[in-house]
Amino acid sequence: MIVIINGSPNKKSKTMSVTNKLLEHTSESITTINTYDVNVQSCDDCQYCNYKIGCSKKDDMNDICEKLYEADTLILSAPIYFGGLSDKIMSIINRFQRFYSQKYILKEGSIPHFKNLILISTQSSDKTRMFNGAKETLNILDILFKPTYLGQILIPSSDQTPLLSEEDIQNINVIKKKMK
Ligand SMILES: Cc1cc2nc3c(=O)[nH]c(=O)nc-3n(C[C@H](O)[C@H](O)[C@H](O)COP(=O)(O)O)c2cc1C
């Protein structure tokens, strides 16, 4: 199963259009978590997960975590907001702290394992350094989840048409093959 965490509030999300391009023709089942439709509280560093597996908060994150355990592929699809991934997706990613503590502090049980972990992001600026925060987040998630394949599709100048250059499409096709 492919799980997409969609961090865009836009019904016609440019980032999701890139995600859909990557997934066109896939035969795998897809579950999309729209971050603007779910109730996920911010991690407030309560330290619960340093002592017990799980999280003290009772909200939609429990269902999301169940889906993560079922997923072969996790796709993070989100626009850049002020140099980082949009806040709603970051709220979910910050709640992955439970997995960090489970793995490195409690050293108990197993955390989700993904065959593929893919970051897809767009931003309006042509200055690609604005992706640096998102890339660092992906790097931390790589260390945490140790996916078999890590991929990223980062599209700047998202106000331009067409959104994807020939080079972008080639890169997407390369990633598509590597995900198999
Ligand atoms: C609150 C907010 C902050 C943004 N910050 C940035 C930014 O720091 N750098 C940038 O290049 N674009 C920024 N943008 C533009 C979006 O990243 C861009 O329009 C993106 O392609 C939207 O993707 P979506 O259609 O998938 O939501 C910002 C947009 C909003 C609404």
- The amount of helix comes to 25-40%
The global form is globular
Question: Unreliable segments (pLDDT under 50, ≥5 consecutive)?
Answer: none
Rg, Cα atoms, Å: 16 Å
Based on the coordinates given, report the CATH architecture: 3-Layer(aba) Sandwich
Strand content: 15-25%
List key phrases describing it:
180 residues, alpha/beta, 6-stranded mixed β-sheet, globular, binds flavin mononucleotide
Explained architecture:
The chain has one domain: Flavodoxin domain (Rossmann fold). It is globular. The protein has 180 residues and is an alpha/beta fold. Strand 5, helix 6 and strand 6 form a beta-alpha-beta unit. The model has no long low-confidence stretch (mean pLDDT 98). It has 7 helices and 6 strands; from the N terminus they run E-H-E-H-H-E-E-H-H-E-H-E-H. The protein starts with a strand and ends with a helix. The longest helix is centred in the last third of the chain and has 14 residues. Flavin mononucleotide binds next to helix 1 and strand 3.
SSE inventory with pairings:
Elements (H helix, E strand, L loop, with lengths): L1 E5 L7 H10 L6 E5 L13 H4 L9 H10 L2 E9 L2 E2 L1 H8 L2 H10 L9 E7 L9 H14 L3 E7 L10 H13 L2
